[in-house]
């Protein structure tokens, strides 16, 4: 299975300003958040990129991604009908191909030399199925995420066969339906915000939208889990929700601490806290 397309959803009413935010990347270069997301996709060897936006946002977004604009297709979500609908808005772009999907309000920071997206794409191409990246997350945080339940694949420490997907469950529901043998007590597998999706996911979203104005990616993935192989790949990398309180600050610190200016930033942080405690 080849993965040669990518879709970034950035049409949420609360997301519109996020792609325009400026950060300093690991090399010390100032870039927009959207440019960093696009470079994450390019690092996976994918050059055909779609960004789902609200009508009119393609102009300011295009202005902050520099030369990358030539490889980006902007698609409109004409009405704010939710995340699943936004993703399905790119169905004409994806066609019958598998594709990489990134949520447009998360910044991904790899701890190794391999980008988060490349790790996922190479894994999905090898196993030829839908794959979601996940992270073990303590139960107090799971109402913020889609959560998967299933079982660890035999002989592989970071891969799971997905059996159930529930969007933002309560801890009680998670305990009943989403326990994964082998995880630390009180932890569940939450979405990392990056997936490789097959055409079957778009088919399910389209069917949902024919009967309702709402479509849920988590519900679609739950149906996938009942009908075909669907894997979860555990990530030891970092992701930051740029839309949450201090999200931009935490993302910038992570880029700095995993970049070439790490020592300088650490020294300045030590000086800052020393002054704070005087």
* Strand composition percent: 25-35%
Radius of gyration from CA coordinates = 19 Å
Sheet having the most strands: 5 strands, mixed, barrel
| Secondary structure tally: strands | 13
Gap from first CA to last CA: 59 Å
Low-confidence stretches: none
Structural class computed from helices and strand pairing: alpha/beta
Please give the structural blueprint.
Blueprint: E1 5-9, E2 22-24, E3 30-32, H1 33-42, E4 48-53, H2 58-63, E5 72-76, H3 83-88, H4 91-94, E6 99-103, E7 106-109, H5 116-127, E8 130-138, E9 146-152, E10 159-167, H6 171-177, E11 187-197, H7 199-211, H8 217-227, E12 230-234, E13 238-241, H9 247-257, H10 262-276
Parallel strand pairs: 1-4, 1-6, 4-5, 8-12
Antiparallel strand pairs: 2-3, 6-11, 7-13, 8-11, 9-10, 9-11, 10-12
Structure description:
41% of the residues are buried. The protein folds into 2 domains: 1-110 and 242-266, Spore Coat Polysaccharide Biosynthesis Protein SpsA, Chain A, CATH 3.90.550; 129-235, Spore Coat Polysaccharide Biosynthesis Protein SpsA, Chain A. The strands form 3 sheets. Strands 8-11-9-10-12 form a 5-stranded mixed beta barrel. The protein has helices spanning 33-42, 58-63, 83-88, 91-94, 116-127, 171-177, 199-211, 217-227, 247-257, 262-276, and strands at 5-9, 22-24, 30-32, 48-53, 72-76, 99-103, 106-109, 130-138, 146-152, 159-167, 187-197, 230-234, 238-241. It is globular, with a radius of gyration of 19 Å. The protein has 10 helices and 13 strands. It is of the alpha/beta class and 278 residues long. Strand 9 and strand 10 form a beta hairpin.
